[in-house]
Amino acid sequence: MRVFDELDISRSDFSLETFELLPTKAKLILFTVLHELAKKKSIYLIDIVRFWEEDFYSCNSPIESIFMMAFNIVSILREKELNDDDYGVSIFPQHEIQIEKKKYYADFFIWIQNSESDISVLVECDGHDFHEKTKEQVEKDNEREYELKMAGYEILRFSGSQIYNNPFKCANDVYDYLILKEKRQG
């Protein structure tokens, strides 16, 4: 079941000065979700608070941080959708991939861990600040994507606007993709 897809994070009126380094949007996401879970007296509050900070600072851009935060929340709340033999979903920011003599970094490598199969996807967050496209950049990005696909990686892309405007939809889309991929392999 998709979670927080339609959560209106613009209505959040929380603020904590200890989170000054967070972008405003990330604060709204975190506090709104924590508030919703607290209202429901959810047992997931502890897991979300425990993991969000370390993950947040592993990212290279605000949109990556927002996506990571939303994905972690979604994966915690949707973990019951996994098969019984799954160990869970892991997300690795700035994942290094070596293909022959070239080294690439994916914004995220997301993987369902189990003993029998390899279910994973790369997620790229295409923010305007980091993907100002020149002809040379487009050619380099296309070559990079081609090489990653030839090495067997599947790639999902989200624009900065998609992540910023609805991070839980993006996170749920990735989770749905992994679950569907797992069902097809099983």
H-E order: HHHEEEHEHH
Task: Tell me the structural class.
Answer: alpha+beta
Largest sheet: 4 strands, mixed
Share of residues in helices: 40-55%
Q: What is the CA-atom radius of gyration, in angstroms?
A: 17 Å
Low-confidence parts lasting 5 or more residues at pLDDT below 50?
A: 11-18
- The largest beta-sheet arranges its strands as 1-2-3-4
Sheet-strand content, in percent, reads 15-25%
Count of DSSP-assigned helices: 6
Task: Please sum up the structure shown.
With 186 residues, the chain is an alpha+beta fold.
Describe the structure.
The chain is globular, with a radius of gyration of 17 Å. It has 186 residues and is of the alpha+beta class. Strands 1-2-3-4 form a 4-stranded mixed beta sheet, with helices on both faces. Strand 3, helix 4 and strand 4 form a beta-alpha-beta unit. Helix 2 packs antiparallel against helix 3.
Structure keywords:
186 residues; alpha+beta; 4 strands; globular; 46% helix; 6 helices
Task: Write the SSE topology.
Layout (H helix, E strand, L loop, with lengths): L23 H16 L5 H12 L5 H16 L8 E14 L2 E13 L3 E9 L8 H16 L4 E5 H6 L1 H19 L1
Helix pairs in contact: 1-3, 2-3, 3-6
